Automatic annotation (TrEMBL), chain A:
Alphabetical UniProt keywords: Membrane, Transmembrane, Transmembrane helix
Organism: Alishewanella aestuarii B11
TM spans (from-to): 38-54, 60-81
Annotated region (Disordered), positions in chain: 190-212
PANTHER family: SLR1927 PROTEIN, SLR1927 PROTEIN-RELATED
Protein's name in the database: Uncharacterized protein
Superkingdom of source: Bacteria
UniProtKB/TrEMBL annotation, chain B:
Originating species: Alishewanella aestuarii B11
Protein biosynthesis is among the record's keywords: no
Keyword entries, A-Z: Membrane, Transmembrane, Transmembrane helix
Protein's name according to its UniProt entry: Transglutaminase domain-containing protein
Family matches, as SMART domains: TGc
All copies of domain Transglutaminase-like, residue ranges: 402-472
InterPro entries named in the record: Bact_TGase-like (IPR052901), Papain-like_cys_pep_sf (IPR038765), TgpA_N (IPR021878), Transglutaminase-like (IPR002931)
Region forming the signal peptide: none
Transmembrane segments: 21-48, 68-95, 107-125, 131-149, 161-179, 542-563
Keyword Transmembrane helix applies: yes
UniProt xrefs under SUPFAM superfamilies: Cysteine proteinases
């Protein structure tokens, strides 16, 4: 009971004093250090040897006792400096599909850190990083989650590195999102996209191979209509052209449903979005109450999938 | 911890077994033949399993293996002895653990036991080489310990290792020198071992055995110049009970009946004869210690015995260092009972000797000085021989010695003289101890070996015990077979001359090193520690100097960190995107991370016409710094960022 209360207090303290950041450097205030079980046994050994050396008036036993004691004291420093100034940064958000394990790409930075154990606080799943010397790209494995978007929980870093006499640990909080998209599931009996009657009606065949659109960052300069630029220098206009003749424009629709039906629909939509992206089509997403315009590319796919995750 | 779930490497296990094997060797004194053989069998099996890469035994199997062995040990506990039983159990537990090693966490207790067992090795061995060897084994265990918690691939790198050792060494030695020491808290069991040195009885022949032994008995350093060589009679035992053949210690020396007798101080203590010295006695498994003349004061680990002797408060099972302050003058008679005790004779034994004593008494009266001079003349002028291999003596041993064989060793001469003196009415006793020694002129200490063991006589005259050494009276030409055996090993080799000089020099240097080791490492005790503390306290007298030095060191350290910090800052500033990140840190983040900063500042300026001028300024400084390479723009840029931080943060995104 008391333990639980203390733990709650401690968590509140952590949340107050160490809010989530994209990049965390382990400073003095964030590192905790206590003797491990072996450390306590080791201290007992030092005491026993001291008594033995005293009773036999044997300086060599006293010497070995003091040697182990100095080792114990020094290990405290070494264990602390093993974690000190370790820097963790989030590289990107974690993405996965439901029922698939996710990994959060992290960057670890330390001059010399060994035998670092990483995991989410309160979780059994832990990972071991043998050596960090300089910069290390690291994938933090996350537990299986159901569809949605989660904040990254607080991490637990720990190490016993030299001699295991001291436990040195920290609870850094990194600000990162864990996106869990619906699992992709092929709709039964509707293997071919082009024959999908639902989407057939929404296909908008293009008249001609070119059209005009406002300039967007990333458009090729040679496609800018220079003649029009003189009239409106702030808003250049570019010609847009499709490469092939077989241009597909498809809308993926998620019906207004709930419960298992919604999940199934989302899974189908996920599957179709991936198929469309793979086929190089332009596609949009129709959600109940929300529409994502036509587009293509991995960023577009990501946006669509994120909408599905939040649905 | 996950690290503890890693597999133990085979190499690690092999090293651990090697370490345990060396522990077995270290504990040889504590082990009997059958238990050594048992452990050898276990080691053989362990090695076989390691080579075959067999699966580790389960805890259940281990219990079945160890339980009968433990029962066997406890059954034999009486013959093994309590302390040796502990060593057996320690090693058995280590070996048992080795059978079930698989993961790293299995080995943690093993390390603990090995640390303990290795340190216990110092109970048996304190010589420098052995101590270095044991510390080496401790270092091996430390390496195993390190590997247990280190990455698999990691090799010990020299630089961090040296750094660690350099940090640990001052702590270690500082603790050794300054950590408070306690007197023994309780009596510990000692391993059973035969005692060396003089025994509690002196029969003809007991000293001959010692004399052929070159082992070190003790070493002495004097505070001040050493006394004259003829005064080096180190008293260890006094034999007062004579049964016609043997001299024995009287029951007043028995520990159970013994009261702590205060030694009588002589009325006139001549301070010129007073001598302070420090003795370093080798382990003898006895309690007797060695002193000169009349001890006046002694260190706390000693206590007085009757007849002006001293003894250690506990069995000397390891080198013992003690200080004594002695008066080099005849010992005063303590009680009349002592006189009576030393007049006792052994009934009717040795009739011819008693007759001789009567003659001497008629001639000189009961005057000890004259009688002893007469005895010396007798031994010198008649055909008495000095030999290490005296003939066997039957009943009435003294008669046989004085009138038939006439050749003997110091114990023969001493016992015969004491017997004759007693028969002539002079109280006399035989004293056992050591005489002489090798004076090391360059190192200023005295080495006394077992071969210096000697027996002489003390007789009472005018209330004082006077020293009489009858052996010294034998004419040198009548020393038989003496020389070769009477010389120590180094002296013999010196005579034969086949050993190169440098080797001898080396041996001599080694013995000096061993002496330093004994004095400074083994002999460092509470007294020396308190002296050290006093010296440190005396240093406090110079506190302004100390403060100045520490301030100097501190400011040097601070200057060093400051310089390093500056360098680090400079390096950061020279990084290509340092200033970009600096500026961006106070602006709302751009939509696309690849957007040039100037462009983003422009866009922000259009969205926030109120702050356009500020943004313009910022852009100018930035471009000056980055594109024109104008380092002087760094300062105004930094100032601008610092000053306008709040306004910049509040900018509206375009």
């Amino acid at each position: 009971m008391l333990k639980r209360l203390l733990q709650q207090k401690f968590q509140a303290y952590l949340a107050r004093s160490q809010p989530a950041q994209p990049s965390v450097c382990l400073t003095q205030k964030r590192i905790y250090i206590l003797p491990s079980r072996l450390g306590l046994w080791f201290a007992l050994l030092v005491l026993i040897l001291y008594l033995l050396g005293t009773n036999y008036q044997n300086n060599l036993i006293l010497l070995s006792s003091f040697m182990l004691l100095s080792l114990l004291l020094l290990t405290m420093l070494l264990a602390f400096y093993n974690l000190y100034r370790l820097k963790l940064s989030v590289v990107a958000d974690a993405e996965t599909f439901a029922n698939q394990p996710a990994a959060l790409p992290l960057q670890l930075n330390s001059a010399n850190c060994q035998m670092l154990q990483l995991g989410l606080q309160g979780q059994r799943l832990q990972q071991l990083v043998p050596v960090i010397s300089g910069q290390l790209a690291f994938a933090l494995q996350l537990p299986l989650l159901s569809r949605g978007c989660y904040e990254l929980p607080r991490l637990k870093l720990s190490s016993q590195f030299p001699f295991g006499l001291f436990n040195c640990w920290s609870y850094p909080a990194l600000s990162a999102q864990l996106w869990v998209y619906p699992a992709a599931l092929a709709p039964t009996g509707q293997q071919n996209l082009d024959e999908d009657p639902d989407n057939q009606g929404q296909t908008q065949p293009l008249e001609g191979s070119e059209w005009l659109k406002p300039y967007q960052a990333g458009d090729q300069p040679r496609r800018i209509l220079w003649k029009k630029l003189a009239t409106n220098p702030q808003q250049p206009i570019v010609r847009q052209q499709q490469d092939g003749n077989t241009v597909n424009e498809q809308w993926v629709k998620v019906p207004n449903a709930s419960g298992a039906a919604l999940e199934l629909a989302l899974q189908h939509a996920c599957y179709r979005l991936q198929q469309l992206e793979g086929a190089g089509s332009r596609y949009g997403l129709l959600l109940p109450g929300k529409t994502l315009a036509l587009g293509q590319g991995t960023q577009h796919l990501q946006r669509c999938l994120q909408e599905l995750a939040l649905c | 911890m996950l690290a503890q779930e890693l597999q133990l490497s085979r190499r690690w296990q092999q090293l651990a077994v090697a370490l345990q094997f060396s522990i077995l060797l270290l504990f040889q004194d504590a082990f009997t033949a059958w238990s050594s053989a048992l452990f050898l069998l276990l080691f053989g099996w362990l090695l076989l399993r390691l080579i075959q890469q067999a699966e580790p035994l389960s805890p259940r199997q281990i219990n079945w293996l160890l339980a009968p062995l433990l029962l066997l040990l406890f059954w034999q506990a009486r013959s093994i002895g309590a302390m040796n039983l502990m060593f057996h159990i320690l090693l058995l537990s280590a070996v048992g653990r080795s059978f079930s090693l698989k993961l790293r966490r299995d080995a943690i207790q093993l390390l603990w036991v090995q640390y303990f067992a290795l340190s216990c090795g110092f109970i048996f061995y304190q010589q420098m080489l052995m101590a270095l060897l044991i510390f080496g084994l401790l270092a091996l265990n430390l390496t195993l310990h390190f590997q247990l918690f280190a990455p698999n691939s990691s090799q010990l790198k020299l630089k961090p290792l040296l750094k660690t050792v350099a940090l640990a060494l001052p702590i270690w030695l500082g603790l050794f020198l300054l950590f408070p020491r306690l007197p023994p808290l309780w009596q510990m069991p000692n391993q059973q071992q035969a005692s060396t040195g003089l025994g509690s009885e002196l029969d003809p022949g007991s000293i001959e055995r010692l004399v052929q032994n070159d082992a070190l008995a003790f070493r002495v350093s004097f505070n001040g110049p050493p006394p004259a060589r003829e005064l080096w009679y180190w008293r260890a035992k006094v034999y007062e009970h004579f049964d016609g053949r043997r001299w024995q210690e009287h029951s007043r020396f028995d520990r159970r009946q013994q009261q702590l007798t205060a030694l009588a101080t002589p009325a006139s203590s001549n301070s010129q004869n007073r001598l302070d010295y420090q003795v370093l006695a080798e382990s003898s498994f006895q309690r007797d210690v060695f002193s000169l003349g009349l001890p006046l004061s002694w260190s706390e680990n000693l206590q007085p015995r009757p007849a002006a002797l001293l003894q250690s408060t506990q069995l000397i099972s390891q080198r013992l260092s003690y200080q004594v302050s002695s008066l080099l003058s005849p010992l005063p008679l303590v009680a009349n009972a002592e006189r009576q005790l030393n007049l006792q004779q052994a009934g009717n034994s040795n009739p011819r000797s008693q007759q001789l004593a009567m003659q001497l008494q008629q001639q000189y009266g009961s005057d000890g000085h004259q009688l002893s001079a007469a005895l010396a003349t007798l031994f010198r002028e008649q055909a008495f021989y000095y030999t290490l291999e005296p003939p066997m003596l039957g009943a009435d041993a003294i008669d046989q010695f004085l009138f038939q064989t006439r050749s003997g060793f110091c114990s023969h001469y001493a016992s015969a003289s004491a017997m004759l003196l007693r028969a002539a009415g002079v109280p006399a006793r035989v004293v056992g101890g050591y005489q002489g020694g090798d004076w090391q002129a360059s190192q200023q200490y005295l080495i006394v070996r077992q071969r210096d063991a000697h027996a002489w006589v003390e007789y009472l005259q005018d209330g004082y015990w006077h020293l009489f050494d009858p052996t010294a009276a034998i004419a040198p030409e009548r020393i038989l077979q003496g020389l070769a055996q009477a010389l120590s090993e180094p002296e013999r080799t010196l005579l034969s001359g086949w050993q190169p000089g440098w080797l001898q020099q080396l041996a001599l240097q080694w013995s000096h090193l061993d002496y330093l080791w004994a004095v400074w490492v083994l002999g460092f005790d509470q007294n020396q520690q308190s002296v050290l503390w006093q010296q440190l306290a005396a240093l406090l007298h110079y506190w302004p100097l100390l403060v100045a030095i520490s301030l100097g060191v501190l400011s040097l350290l601070m200057a060093y960190t400051l310089v390093r910090y500056r360098q680090q800052r400079l390096r950061q500033q020279q990084a290509p995107d340092h200033w970009r990140r600096q500026v961006l840190s106070v602006l709302p983040p751009p939509g696309q991370s690849a957007e040039p900063l100037s462009h983003w500042l422009n866009r922000l300026a259009t969205a926030n016409p109120g702050q356009a001028e500020l943004l313009q300024q910022l852009r100018q400084h930035y471009e000056q710094l980055i594109f024109a390479g104008n380092q002087q723009a760094a300062y105004p840029l930094q100032q601008l960022i610092k000053r306008e931080r709040k306004q910049l943060r509040a900018l509206k995104r375009p």
